[in-house]
């Protein structure tokens, strides 16, 4: 069997993308497929590992995005104590949300376990350019807060080949860049489903705004109504502001449940029935809501 079409036109691997653990490369080929290639064209799993070790780099995870298993056996990495993950990803079309979510889970889990070292994550599709570039850049944009064009530029430079597919580039560039959560402050009562339309308040003009809420963060495709124009300022809820600053592991449905629990607490406070707070209305999935938002309403009752 010959190598993939145009495979020899691409460099075997690039360099580490700055600010990440990613290194992209084309699909390595099993030894049987390398036999028909010249010595300088051969690129196998063992050759990849050797190249990285010679440059003082350690590979800890390989994510294979090819839509076939015919090029090599993943055990060639796992037997070297390198984690191997396969995500069947069709070429040409934009990778599905299911593919990206799986990619995100694998990468985020590895990064969490290897935050204190420089062990690399190797990503490849057939040529290590388009599907690889899309998923790596999207992760950089949505999880590492890179601007879209900055992520694309850094990937292209590190790989040594630019992302070629315009539909991939267009999709990446239309994704909104989001500020880190610590600078975003939103009152809890705005996190409910509610009426549409804008209104004026004593504190300033408010407007409807859709904020893209990310999985595992406050920002994950939920319609937040009447978000103030002055997002950087502390909004007012009655006589006391509520700032959401630590919601890293809370999803949009969780937020709505939290709001419901907050209403239960508020009702109990007004009626003098505060026992429900101790009973767990401020808890959800084992998470202390008041600890997450940095405010414990129970303290105001004393």
UniProtKB/TrEMBL annotation:
GO cellular component: nucleus
Domain Tyrosine specific protein phosphatases: 101-170
Entries under SMART domains matching the protein: DSPc
Pfam families: DSPc
Ranges for domain Tyrosine-protein phosphatase: 25-181
Sorted UniProt keywords: Hydrolase, Nucleus, Protein phosphatase, RNA-binding
GO molecular function annotations of the record: phosphoprotein phosphatase activity; polynucleotide 5'-phosphatase activity; RNA binding
InterPro entries per record: Dual-sp_phosphatase_cat-dom, mRNA_Capping_Enz/RNA_Phosphat, Prot-tyrosine_phosphatase-like, Tyr_Pase_AS, Tyr_Pase_dom, TYR_PHOSPHATASE_DUAL_dom
Matches recorded under SUPFAM superfamilies: (Phosphotyrosine protein) phosphatases II (SSF52799)
Cell compartment(s), UniProt: Nucleus
Similarity comment: Belongs to the protein-tyrosine phosphatase family. Non-receptor class dual specificity subfamily.
UniProt-recorded name of the protein: Uncharacterized protein
